[in-house]
Amino acid sequence: MKSAIAELEARGKAAREASKRLAYLSTDVKNRALSNTSRDLLARKDEILAANKEDYKESKASGMSDHMLDRLMLNESRLEAMAGDVLNIASLPDPVGEVFEMRTQPNGLQIGKKRVPLGVIGAIYESRPNVTIDISSLCLKSSNAVILRGGKEAIRSNSVLAGVAQDAAVNAGMPDGAIQFVENTDRALVDHMLTMSDAIDLIIPRGSAGLIRSVVEKARMPVISGGIGVCHTYVDKSADVDKAVAIVYNAKVQRPTVCNALDTLLVHTDIAEGYLPVIAAELAKANVEMHCDQRSLSILKAQSGLKLVPATDEDWGKEFLSLVAAVRVVDSLDEALAHIARYGSGHSEAILTGDYPTAMRFLNEVDAACVYVNASTRFTDGAQFGLGAEVGISTQKFHARGPLGLKELTTYKWIILGSGQVRT
């Protein structure tokens, strides 16, 4: 174990040294590294998919849940999407070096801010091998070094993917050590990594609630946490029924195993008898199990072909990550807002309405990272928001919130330009 800790500390020192060069590296070099990464992901797809197949096979045999297996699994289309996201990141403006909020003081001093990288990012994550590429690419474009520590369930996939990114970066002229990957899967190394505040400026955990809680409690450096999504969609009395059916179906069914999928459907009582049978029939096509309160159950119980379960208190505020949704009928917007305030996780919340004042009130009063009007919560994603990808989705309020892209991986320093001024 001592040798593993020594190796981890050496990686931290190497990342810190690399970050010093990255801070002033040209955009052309960074974009070349990303272009190489995208190209090599496709060139080495057979190697990547073979490694992922072994991870998937072993994880399934060990009893991993379906939603975790879905996050672990790579296929050709997902790999192509990863490669495309890397190119999207390359096409985005480089945030590093941006000068903003310049102003001239009465004494002639010009004072402003210049955007700079954070330094070294530590990423601790579970199951999702695409995170290896997403985070390393965003870190490189924002001139940060990164230390990647994935879970043992994806060790083969992550090892190959990290190697692709490392080779691509070095071949483009980036400093060796900019991307560090921790091969050892001993969990004790995570605890040690969380003490390395001299080497790591920020930790980003992605995974289960237990992992995130442990990282937040143990880290000696700042942590951006989030990703736990208890997402509500409220169908207001003025909602367009056809649109509300399509949006709710998409939010629940399109990919139910991810954090921005719908968990609880709230329906205004004035539209419930007309809307609930239609959406229930649609959800039944995808075999969705509906955990209904008494009012929604009374509306739907005579309808055949539905999977209905009486809701319990545990269903409110639960992230299902499966083809299960809680359903509740409410009497007003106030009741919907109160439910979301009590049970939401601050991730993504939506209202479907045809009334502008109601929509604006929802936007103003819901406290979440992403608040939608007449759209699916499945859009909460760095690529969908035009960020190329994301290092995570923060449900915190400091220093960033929602999908974290390039600018969220930077800070700023004050720059002051004078012509001989002295303070009196």
**Taking strands numbered 1, 2, ... along the chain, how are they ordered across the largest sheet?**
10-9-11-8-7-12-13
- Class from secondary-structure proportions: alpha/beta
- Choose one word for the global shape: globular
Show unreliable segments: none
Number of helices: 14
Distinctive features:
424 residues, alpha/beta, Aldehyde Dehydrogenase, Chain A, domain 1, Aldehyde Dehydrogenase, Chain A, domain 2, 2 domains, four-stranded parallel beta sheet, 14 helices
Protein described:
- The chain has 424 residues and is of the alpha/beta class.
- The chain has two domains: 237 residues, Aldehyde Dehydrogenase, Chain A, domain 1; 149 residues, Aldehyde Dehydrogenase, Chain A, domain 2.
- It is built from 14 helices and 16 strands.
- Helix 2 packs across helix 7 and helix 10 packs across helix 11.
- The mean pLDDT is 96.
What's the short story on this structure?
This protein has 424 residues and is an alpha/beta fold.
Q: Secondary-structure map with pairings?
A:
Elements (H helix, E strand, L loop, with lengths): L1 H21 L4 H17 L1 H17 L4 H7 L3 H16 L7 E6 L5 E8 L2 E6 L4 H12 L3 E5 L5 H17 L7 E3 L6 H6 L8 E5 L2 H10 L12 E5 L5 H13 L8 E7 H16 L4 E4 L1 H7 L6 E4 L13 E7 L2 H11 L4 E5 L3 H10 L4 E4 L19 E2 L7 E2 L6 E8 L7
Parallel strand pairs: 3-4, 3-6, 4-5, 7-8, 7-12, 8-11, 9-10, 9-11, 12-13
Antiparallel strand pairs: 1-2, 2-16, 14-15
